[in-house]
Amino acid sequence: MAIRSFFLFILFFSSSLSPVFSLYEDQVGLMDWHQQYIGKVKQAVFSSQRAGRKRVVVSTEENVIASLDLRHGEIFWRHLLGADDVIDGIDIGLGKYVITLSSGGSILRSWNLPDGQMVWESSLQGPKHSKSFLLVPTNLKFDKDNVLVVFSNGRLHAISCIDGEVLWKKDFEAESFEVQQVIQPPGSDLIYVVGFAASYQFEMYQINAKNGELLKHESASFSSGFSGEVSLVSTETVVALDSTGSILLTISFQDGKISSQQTPISNLVEESLGPAVIIPSSVSGIFAIKTDAVTVFIRVIGEGKLEVVEKTTHEIAVSDALSISEDQEAFALIQHASSEIHLTVKLAHDWDGNLLKESVKMDRQRGLVHKVFINNYIRTDRSYGFRVLIVMEDHSLLLLQQGEIVWSREDGLASIIDVTTSELPVERNGVSVAKVEHNLFEWLKGHMLKLKGTLMLASPEDMAAIQSMRLKSSEKSKMTRDHNGFRKLLIVLTRAGKLFALHTGDGRIVWSHLLRSLHKSEACQSPIGLNLYQWQVPHHHAMDENPSVLVVSRCGPSSDAPGVLSFVDTYTGKELSSLSLDHAVVQVIPLPYTDSTEQRLHLLINADKHAHLYPKTSEALSIFKREFLNIYWYSVEDQNGIIKGHALKCKCTGEVADEFCFDTRDLWSVVFPSESEKIVATVTRKLNEVVHTQAKVVADQDVMYKYISRNLLFVATVAPKGSGEIGSVTPEESWLVAYLIDTVTGRILHRVTHHGLQGPVHAVFSENWVVYHYFNLRAHRYEMSVIEIYDQSRADNKDVWKLVLGKHNLTSPISLFSRPEVITKSQSYFFTHSLKAIAVTSTAKGITSKQLLLGTIGDQVLALDKRFLDPRRTVNPTQAEKEEGIIPLTDSLPIIPQSYVTHALRVEGLRGIITVPAKLESTTLVFAHGVDLFFTQLAPSRTYDSLTEDFSYALLLITIVALVAAIFVTWRLSERKELQEKWSFYSAFASQSTFSSLFLCDN
Amino acid sequence: MKWVKVIVSFILTLSFLSFPSCAFQSDELLVDDEEFGLEGAPQHRSPEPIPTRSPPVTSPTRKRHSDLDSDSKIQFSLDHAFGDSDFSPAGTFSARLKTWSHGGQFCQTLTKLRFSRNSFSDVEKEKFKNLLESDDFYRIRLPSNVLSPPGRDFIISSVKARCLPRESLDEHFVIHMEGVNVLAVNYGSPGSCPYPRNLKLPAKWSFSSHTVLKNSEQAPRAPVFTEEILGGENAEGEVVQPAERSFWAKYWMYLIPLGLIVMNAITQAMNMPEEQATGQVPAQGQPSAGAVQRGPSSAVRRR
Q1: Are A515 and A499 spatial neighbours (Cβ–Cβ below 8 Å)?
Q2: Which residues have C-beta within 8 Å of that of residue A499, sequence separation ≥ 6?
Q3: Do A985 and B299 touch (CB under 8 A)?
């Protein structure tokens, strides 16, 4: 009974809260948008079904398998495999199953092609790690059952296509054997496994495909060794390169006999080319090698004779072979030429003749073609037509047919590295924004529809029309700044090195720019984009200057590779300038100072702990000199478990005089004992967060002062044993320690140990509180904790008279070198979900109450009121506390279905949640990104400062008119009544006066 | 007096043993607490930091291993640096190392921390004066492992030199420990250090040091609400009575309008006789003029 009443209470409570977040069905899509992507395509297989919708199945680098509509590029279905479940190969079996091999060849799955349901899954084990291959032979039967041949983890499997049962398996346990190819010549019952052993021996195994019996094993040694991959030029011939990359080895193993031929590349190509690599392709009779500058196509004629067919310096991409008839194979070749790409489709045995030759205009912002997949179809005139699917450098996917781009997908947006926002241009008088003019008839029709909608007479089509009208009529997709600050540009940097500007209104791409500085060049072989920073945000010159962002990147994966800076205009997407630095970029610190052109000062720390100031102007230097002694920062060395604090010392004392370079010094260090603690999370407050009030009034008329410092760092460490997966340790061996560290002085302000807990830890820091999420091994549940930190040194400023007379220390500057007097309050609660990301809403002035945004394991975003994570919650709050809004303590945090920000949608592969304040105080903009993108507006305490979109202005107007009319009517009425009363009085008076006159007469 | 202080500090330091800082910990530890005579140590909520004032006399720097393995004396040194100069020895911490085995694991903690500070030499005084003038950092460092100094790295901490001088040079150490490892040291003045730091030379060139040893607090467990708790505390019959409020607090919303009405009535009553006095005059003396001017009121009266 008690429990029931308790639940009733909770229900009542939650229902009283829920309207804050929930929205009606027809409001979906008014303020939010959702975009689905798949990532950079690794492999594509065209469905060869004659009837039905044409589709292509792709696997991507985001571990997505998807079936796309070949006509429009839409997603029929898709599945996101786990982060460590990398797809090694896909194919289509029996025309109706999509077969995927993933997780380093250890998981084989079959999916139903039409709807994407999983049919079966098999786990394949093996003796050792190796390359994995998936073959779907067309005519290899085994008891009427089609067979899949999978080589993975040093073992060859034959697997039934119907139910995933392993029919036979064969181990290749030889220690040094590295498999290079698995070949199943069509029309035979043999499987060849070829590879290298001990890097100089060529091994060939011939296996009976019926039962896995080893028929033959041959080997031949090559003293020069091998390098790189092999290319298969026929079912019984492979081409490899020797270890120097200068001699081609043609190895044929016809009838189980290995014969070989060596051809130096210099014999084929006159000039020396330097070391070459083989481009993997499977076109029979032809292979390609590539050096730094040149790509050479070589044909194999007969007995290992080689002949150069083409040499090109253009960037080139080749597709795999496509068999179009019994003895004919075609392949596609794409070459770049300035702003065009040339597509040629050739037959494998006839290099000079082209089946197809087309040129397609290509946007330069898409970069080079990385991959080509070819497919054929039968034209209306019964001849063969070809279409190709190409993957570009910016990870976009395009379908080319008949010399045109049929559709394109911006799949680079599936791998966002960093996000920042930019304001839109101010609306100017001269520049009028195109306005949709309605004629009278449309206007009437629209209103009729709306009327129908309100009277519940509308059919579903009408409802859709109303919805689209509402979407269109809203001004949310304008390209100018709005009063409420809802319209912004989201600037996103993708892994491909492309910058996109997305409009927050409808999510469309305003511009995109493939950064030149992130382009592969001689100076910078593998550039990696790192971060985005707001470089210039003009306020005073908003009318005539454009904001710009800074993109920090570096050449190569190691942290001491030199950095590259580029500056991009956010209105036009033009790269204003780029700088190749002569130092590495380990840390970028945006300083809270701007120069006269409102460029923000940035401090870049390199690997030798020198600080470099940007922009390199004398004005910036003079501003910087003024604040020289007040700049502190910290660095976290996760691997060593050391956190250090730094300050600036003097100018660089290097050999080159550089006045923008400064030496630094270590001020403090915190060393975590390596045997008992390992850093798993470090979080600070957002730099641009605004806190409205420093004090918090608690129930008994008391005041608590928040300890608000921008220099607080939350660090979570776990036991090194417990840093693995959940459940890998016992509760006794695992613990979590939470720290609050002042980053100026290195003081540990708070330190607390939780026993029996394990990571992963997700944390968010805002105002004076931090919330962190972890796993409780004892309770077998996830848990969230909150720590709030309050300042005691100002706690005695409670007396009103002190405040009135100015005898308080609230305005005196705070020095972090003083001994801090803080108290902390904390509490823990159970929470059902595991998390992928955590964020907190942020508003313009910080008045609105906060909500935590939790990216759940189900790829949704859940909004949770911060009031649920209040360490002052008690089981039985007093009346005063209830009035203050303290929720009775429960052991777990409630999950209210209506409070899912993403409502019914899922942001697949959720990685991050970004909140941006709008100008309207009540509203915050939320952008969640992963493989999908999702954007919405949130009002954590409802839109208390503006009327909602569906506010009925007509009703207001009618009310006003009615009131005015009523005023007039009553005025007239009262006037008339007054007149009547005057008349009646007058007549009474008149009679009285006549009476008195009579009386007088009598006298 | 001094005896009392020593005993109190001893007991307090001992109380740290009840906050075992070694890696392994379980709830059963309460049984072991008896061993150290500290049963019923309150919830491991917030251990009071133990201020141990450094004795004025430098304790003899001997490294004596007691017979018992469980209790040995160790010492480790404090180094200091002026600005960016190199570190030089500045003092010695000595403490007792308690070792005990628990569940097959050895736990070690430091207790009875004492600190002896070397006084400044003339050269150091000069350096410190320079620091004060240039408002630069005075830096200290400790080994990160007290058994095998310096451990993995030194623990560095620094403070603006102008924060230290008062009467003498006042300093305050909070050493965060984890077993025999030093995690961090909070170093600074014992009080506040207001921002416009003024140049002030100390009257006495000697240090008065306060040292505090801090181990990690234990977090309270998340509350698990079982049905009994709910039944016990939130049963239906036991509706929590709201606190009795005063008469005024309860009925102010009735009292204020009542008061207004009363006041209104009083003013009306005050006006009444006056009006009657003036109202009757025109009726008799100048009937026509008076009636027109105060039409409504006389009309009302006539009705």
Answers
A1: yes
A2: A491, A492, A493, A512, A513, A515, A549, A551, A568, A573
A3: yes
Average pLDDT value for residue range A778-801:
83
Q: For residue A662, how far is the Cα from the chain centroid?
A: 35
Whether the CB of A993 is below 8 Å from some CB of chain B: the reply is yes
H or E segment to which residue B96 belongs: strand B88-102
Average pLDDT over residues A149-161: 89
Q: Give the closest residue to A552 by CA, choosing from A535, A566, A534.
A: A566
In a domain, residue B287? The reply is no
Q: Six-digit token pair at A532?
A: 């985005």
List the A851-856 sheet strands across, edge first.
Answer: A835-840, A851-856, A861-865
Max Cα–Cα distance, chain A, nearest Å: 160
Taking the CA of residue B36 and the nearest CA in chain A, the distance in Å comes to 22
Mean pLDDT of chain B: 68
For residue B150, whether the previous peptide bond is cis, meaning omega lies within 30 degrees of 0, is yes
CATH 2.130.10.10 placement within chain A? 38-162
Selected residue with higher pLDDT from B233 and A454 = A454
- Give the mean model confidence (pLDDT) for residues A585-594: 91
Total domain count, chain B: 1
pLDDT at A241: 84
Token couple for A124: 């394949």
Residue A137 structure tokens: 């032979």
Q: What is the pLDDT of residue A389?
A: 92
With CB atoms and an 8 Å threshold, state whether B192 touches A815: yes
Q: What is the ipTM of this complex?
A: 0.77
Handedness of CA A239, A290, A273, A345 (dihedral sign): positive
Question: For strand A587-594 and strand A575-584, is the pairing parallel, antiparallel, or unpaired?
Answer: unpaired
Rounded Cα gap, residues A835 and A912, in angstroms: 11
Looking at residue B50, what is its pLDDT?
A: 43
Query: To which H or E segment does residue A650 belong?
Result: strand A642-651
pLDDT interval class at B178 (50, 70, 90): confident
Asked whether the whole model's pTM tops 0.90, one would answer no
Q: What is the DSSP string of B144-212?
A: SBSSSTTTTSEEEEEEEGGGSBSSSEEEEEEEEEETTEEEEEEEE-SS---SSPPP---SS--EEEEEE
Instruction: State residue A651's pLDDT score.
Output: 80
Three-class secondary structure of residue A852 per DSSP: strand
* Residue A736 C-alpha, separation from nearest chain B C-alpha, in angstroms: 10
Q: By residue range, what is the domain housing residue B92?
A: 70-215
Banded model confidence at residue A860, pLDDT cuts 50, 70, 90: very high
Among A496, A499, A500, CA closest to A509: A500
Instruction: Give strand pairing partners of A533.
Output: A550
List b or e across B220-230, with b for residues whose CB sees 16 or more CB atoms inside 10 angstroms.
eebbebeeeeb
Tell me the two tokens of residue A87: 């797809």
Query: What distance lies between CA A409 and its chain's CA centroid?
Result: 16
A649 touches chain B (CB under 8 A): yes
Whether B277 maps to a domain, the answer reads no
For A205, phi then psi, to 5°, come to -115, 130
Report, as an integer, the average pLDDT of B168-189.
88
Q: Provide, rounded to the nearest whole percent, the portion of chain A with pLDDT above 70.
A: 91
Residue A525 pLDDT greater than 90, yes or no: no
**For domain A38-162, which CATH number applies: 2.130.10.10, 2.60.120.10, 1.50.10.20, 3.40.50.410?**
2.130.10.10
**pLDDT computed for residue A800 by the predictor:** 66
Q: How much is the CA Rg of chain B, to the nearest whole Å?
A: 38
Q: From the CA of A744, how many Å to the nearest CA of chain B?
A: 10
Q: What is the dihedral of CA A5, A7, A12, A17, to 10 degrees?
A: 150
Cβ separation of B236 and A5 shorter than 8 Å?
Answer: yes
Q: Give the whole-angstrom CA distance, residue A881 versus residue A875.
A: 11
Which residues pair with residue B261 across a beta bridge? Answer: none
